[in-house]
Design goal:
Homodimer. This protein has helices spanning 4-11, 49-62, 64-67, 75-87, 102-114, 129-137, 154-166, 190-203, 226-229, 258-267, 275-285, 289-315, 341-350, 381-397; strands at 35-36, 97-100, 120-125, 141-148, 151-152, 173-176, 207-210, 235-240, 252-255, 321-322, 330-334, 353-354, 356-357, 371-375. By secondary structure, it is an alpha/beta fold. The protein folds into two domains: 27-47 and 291-397, Alpha-Beta Complex (Aspartate Aminotransferase, domain 1); 49-287, Type I PLP-dependent aspartate aminotransferase-like (Major domain) (Aspartate Aminotransferase, domain 2, 3-Layer(aba) Sandwich), CATH 3.40.640.10. α2 (49-62) packs across α11 and α7 (154-166) packs parallel to α8. 43% of the residues are buried. It binds pyridoxal-5'-phosphate.
Length: 398
């Protein structure tokens, strides 16, 4: 007689049978007491706690009836998102915006409306697997386009699209993180942005632009988002308050053609998103406060990025290579030839630090063992320095 667990497992769909261990414990802290440079958590020192308490108190005092009942998301937050998009040069309208529980929810819903088993989705290699795994669960067949120091290689993308078109196949969408890419930190050049938007229109393939980090620029000139360059409506722009305010608020959004928003609403089971929390966020962000907060974040993350870059230069072997990011949360280090990220990780952990091995950022098994992702967002400058020194010493152990 098989066990209850076995009999229960037989009932699960194939897409949820394999259990992947969670990255974080219940409280959101990394599970092990190491200096973890693995995850892109926000810096808790930067949460505007007093202002959020004030905003929440005001919502409870003045808007309790609307915010604590079954109700719509607060339209005032949508208006703020539209205003920010318009300032960026996007011809945005409120009916083209849907607020969700984090951009992660939006990225999980997009395959629900586009992907049938066997459909093609084009992704970057490496990429943010949190999203890519949702595409796979919907049955997508992935085609990976490489990323270099200027972002996604659009020449390769053009070849892929041409070949597929010749076979009579049209991918369901292209998923890209053009600005301060997760995990590599690189930014898609202006030329490539133009080419990507043109390819989307030529081949009739939507581009999912996940610009989670776009506001966290600390050097270089801002580039137009793909959504701002898009005249034909093929760009689906996904954004989040996680990196510019607090991930625990779980507020993200999507801007896209009305036809797409309407279908996302059909699959968003709970319908609306947090009438209470959308009001708190909107109250906090009003009167230019969000933009002032972002200025502060940029300064702070720039300093931590600088600490990490300088520590890597001092502690890692000279053959370890990285592109200095102009914003975001991450540095991607290509290891000296012959060094395996997985082996380095074991040595680093025994010295008290950890990172994300590159293989965790590729959809195909066997890729990425020559690279690591280091997050400078969460740890203090002192612990970044200690963590990088520990990983540097781990190179010596190999
Ligand atoms: C590129 C990218 N997109 C989306 C997300 C998810 O963010 P959210 O907290 O809005 O779900 C992350 C989080 O790390 C990310 O790095």
């Amino acid at each position: 007689m098989s066990s209850t667990v076995d009999r229960l497992t037989d009932l699960f769909t194939t897409r949820v049978r394999e259990i992947v261990p969670p990255l974080f414990g219940a409280a959101g802290e990394p599970v092990r007491p190491l200096i973890s440079l693995a995850y892109g958590l926000a810096d808790p020192a930067l949460f505007p706690r007093a202002e959020l308490i004030a905003a929440a108190t005001q919502v409870l005092a003045y808007e309790a009836a609307e915010s604590l009942n079954y109700a719509m998301s607060y339209p005032g937050l949508t208006d703020q998102i539209v205003a920010r998009l318009q300032a960026e040069g996007v011809d945005a309208q409120p009916e083209q915006v849907l607020v969700g529980y984090g951009s992660g929810q939006i990225l999980a819903l997009l395959p629900e409306i586009f992907v049938e088993p066997g459909d093609i989705v084009i992704i970057e290699g490496p990429s943010f697997l949190g999203a890519v795994k949702r595409f796979v669960q919907s049955g997508a067949r992935l085609i990976t386009v490489p990323v270099d120091e200027h972002g996604m290689n659009v020449t390769v993308l053009a070849d892929v699209l041409r070949r597929l078109a010749a076979e009579g196949r049209r991918p369901k969408f292209i998923y890209t993180i053009p600005t301060f890419h997760n995990p590599t930190g690189v930014t898609l050049s202006l030329d490539r942005r133009r080419q990507l938007v043109a390819l989307a229109a030529e081949y009739g393939v939507p581009v999912v632009e996940d610009d989670a980090y776009i506001d966290l620029r600390f050097s270089g000139e801002p580039l137009p988002s793909l959504a701002a360059l898009d005249q034909a409506g093929w760009v689906i722009r996904v954004g989040t308050y996680s990196k510019i305010l607090a991930p625990g608020l779980r507020i993200g959004w999507v801007h896209a053609r009305r036809e797409i928003i309407d279908r996302l609403l059909m699959v968003k089971a709970e319908g609306t998103t947090g009438p209470f929390i959308t009001r708190v966020v909107a109250r906090y962000c009003a009167d230019g406060r969000l933009e002032r907060h972002i200025t502060e974040l940029r300064r702070h993350y720039a300093a931590k990025c600088h600490v990490m870059v300088s520590a890597v230069q001092r502690h890692f072997p000279a053959e370890a290579h990285f592109v200095r990011p102009e914003g975001g949360f991450f540095i991607w280090v290509t290891l000296p030839s012959g060094v395996s990220a997985q082996t380095l990780l074991t040595a680093a952990r025994s010295r008290g630090a950890e990172f994300l091995p590159g293989s965790a950022c590729f959809a195909e098994p066997g890729q990425g063992d020559n690279a690591i992702r280091l997050a400078f967002s969460f740890q203090s400058s002192e612990r970044i320095e200690q963590g990088i020194a520990a990983i540097g010493a781990a190179f010596g152990d190999l």
